[in-house]
Amino acid sequence: MTEPSFVQRFCGLSMRDVLQLLSSLVLPLSLGVFTVIVTLHQQSVASQQREEDRQLARGQREQDLNISRLQRLQDLNMFALQREQDMNISREQRIHDKDIAEQKRIQEDILAEKQRNMSEAQRYHELRVTQEAFRDTLLLSYIKEMGDLITKNNGRLMADPIVAAIARGKTLSVIRQLDAFRNAHLVQFLYEAKQLTNGNNPLDLSDAELNEIDFSSRSVHHRNLRNLALAGALLRNSSFSNRDLSNANFSDADLTDARFDLSKLEDADLSNAILVRVDFSGSVMKSTILNRTQCRRARFYNVIALKASFSDSKLDAANFVRCNCREVIFYGAELGGADFSQATLLGSIFIGTRLVRVNFYNAIMNEIKFNGLDLSFTNFTKSTCSRAVFNQAKVRTAHFVNAILREADFTNANMNGTDFREANLRLATLVHSDLKNSIFIGANMDMANLSLSVMVNAIVSDAQLHSAASIRDTVLPNGTKITRDPNMLYNGHADCWHRQLRDYWQINPNNAIIITPEQNSSANCIFASQIETSSKMSQQANLTRYNQLLIWRQLIIVFKVRIIENIKSIHMYDHMNRTIIALNFTHGFAIETLRAQICSYQPTITVTFDSYGWCDDIELTVERASHAFSCR
What we know:
This protein is flat. The chain has helices at residues 2-9, 15-152, 161-177, 180-192, 462-467, 547-551, and strands at 474-475, 481-482, 506-508, 513-517, 525-529, 535-540, 555-573, 579-584, 589-597, 604-615, 618-624.
């Protein structure tokens, strides 16, 4: 049953036949499949090739488009560049053409200006020649007419008022028409004709416009212009350099910016003149009168001005550097900001003078009196002011650095904030002065009198205070007040803490006198005699530190004894045992003070006690006399 079904199933073919059939069909089928596969593959390759060709074509087209676009851009850029170059060339050409036209115009203008200038210069030259000729003719005519007038009036034009008026009017008229050069010759003519001689009734040239005239020695042959009278004239920017102008008269003249350097102006009169910025450098001005002048910023450098007078003059910011100003009068003058560096001012007078912010650097001013003046902010650095007087002066914030102030008098002066560094204040008087905030670093204050002064916040050392002659009633930098000067007698106050009298006092008889507490006050001790008979105690004071005052005979001894009972006498003897002070007592008293002149370096004090006598303080101090006294 199995086999027939198989046959029946495969159309009567046996397995073998089927296998043979299949084997015969394998090759054609394989070829067919291969052919189909190859065909499909070729189609796929052809499709890929066509796609690649399309992509290549597309890329080529894009490249061609890019190249075309770049070419168009390059063409556009080249066209724009060419157009810009053409425009630049055109612009440069226009600018060049414009520059050429401008240069041509400028050249034409310059040429025209030169022609105008030449024409103007020619006209000016012709005018100047004409004017010079006119001025020469005018001057010659004036000289001739004035010569005739002078001759006709016997050389005395001012004797007749009518002639004087005619001469003045004609002279002023001619001066206005002449230049400075010819005006100098006109003045020279009148001077030589004795019509401008001071003290000889000179021709009145007040208000004459003589500005910028040159009378210096280089322009006029003769240096001598003594007694020249130009009172009231206008002489701005004029020059009188290196001329002898002794006894000349420039009173009321306007000499602004004039030059008198190296000139001789002895006894000349410049009172009431305007001397702003005038240069007097190197001139000799002995006894010259400059009262009530306007001398702001005037220059008196290296001038010899002995006995000159600047009373009531305005000398603000004037220059007196190296000026020899001995015995010069500055009464009532205004010298604010003036410079007296290295000047010599011996004997000069500064009464009522304004001296704020003046510079006296390295100046010599011994014995000058600045009483009551305002010297605030003034510079006295390195100046020499020995025995100068600053009594009641305002010397606030002034500078005396390295200044020599020996024996200077600052009594009642206001010196708040003043700088005395390295200054020499030996024997100076600063009584009742205001020295608050002042600086004394390195200053020599030996024998200076500081009594009654106020030194709050001042910079001063204890050694300097101890070297002073007196600090009685002085307010110290820390605010404390010294009520009395040191006692020149050792243990003269009967100190309870030191009861050994033999160390300082000579007792006769020995141990007859002792220091003992007072009966009514155990805190206070007294000198007391223990015997019924007379006794003495003596001590020799040493005054050698006051040797300069002793040499000058200006030392005053101040002797004070307080509360005595049964004291017979107190004597003071000099080194030759001559009596200086003698006090004899018949009864007790509270305080006894005595002043006496002394010429001894070592005076001796002797106290003589009666029976059981006693006394309290015995004090010996010194003062300086205002004047020297004679010694026996």
